[in-house]
Amino acid sequence: MVLGLLLHIATAATPEPVGIAITPLQLVDVSPELGGYAEDRLANHLGDLGFKVTTPADIAALLGIERQRQLLGCSEDGCNAEIGSALGVPLMLVGRVTKLEERFDIDLRVIRQRDGLVVARDTRRIVGIKGLGELMEAAGDSLAKQLAPKTPFAWRLWVPVLAGTVAAGVGGVLWAQAELQHASYTGAGSLPVTRILGLKNIDAKFAQLSTQRLIGMVVAGAGVVLIAGGFVWNALVPSLPVSVVVAPQAGGATFALGGTF
User: Where are the domains of the chain?
Assistant: First the structure.
């Protein structure tokens, strides 16, 4: 039964691969063979990073060559929405590879299918053809990082840890103060308590120290529980699909905050 529960937790904490379709890259003074190589390096690397990748070849096979040509001839926003809807993937990757003499420029964008919002973007350049494959993989790393589920400020870990640290510190100080003061009254070599406080105040003072000691222990214990709970929660519960994206657009920029809170 315990094993089954652990397996259930592990399964629930493993997110499903995110589907992303790579449309044929626009090529400017770049041969189709070299463009296909760049697409393959990008697709393979995104697959290694955990994405469920639909390649341009997959798109052609699934939609058919003629239908793909029709879709790729439409307006960019409408085309991406139609292709994404037809393939059933949430993300579309579009981009361009441009050759300027010996320099290669790449511009990649990831568009969310449901609303057409650019959720990730990367622009890079390199001189010479030898590093083009590595350049595509580096761009894939950047896009994957931007698309990774995020929890703002890692609140589910740091909030309980910080609150627990404060509580443990306050509780520990109260507890230590009570113990030290009690020891100063009753320890070897200390002055008789009656000479310090007077007989009528002795019981009240010890009761006060006992209460302070108990409060300190409770607060410190609660702090330790908060700290441990923060680490356990962070380890067992999958990241919240929250993302903050600022994407450059013509004439300005688009700011997007999305996900489940």
Answer: 15-150+240-258, 153-236
Angle at 149 (CA atoms; ends 132, 232), nearest 5 degrees = 130
| Ramachandran bin of 46, using left for φ above 0, alpha for ψ from -120 to 50, beta for the remaining angles | alpha
Q: How many CA atoms lie within 13 A of 23 on its CB side?
A: 29
Q: What is the pLDDT of residues 177-192, one digit of tens each?
A: 988 887 877 765 555 5
Tokens, residue 200: 């009528």
Name the pTM for this structure.
0.52
Token pair of 51, please? 């994405």
Task: Compute the distance between CA of residue 58 and CA of residue 157 in angstroms, rounded to an integer.
Answer: 40
Q: How confident is the model at residue 55 (pLDDT cuts 50, 70, 90)?
A: confident
Residue whose C-alpha is closest to residue 79's, from 39, 122, 111 = 111
C-alpha 61 chain-centroid distance: 34
Which residue's structure tokens are 């991406």?
Answer: 80
Please name every residue paired with 112 in a beta bridge, in sequence order, or none if there are none: 91
CATH fold for domain 15-150+240-258: Rossmann fold (3.40.50)
Beta bridge partners of 52: 19
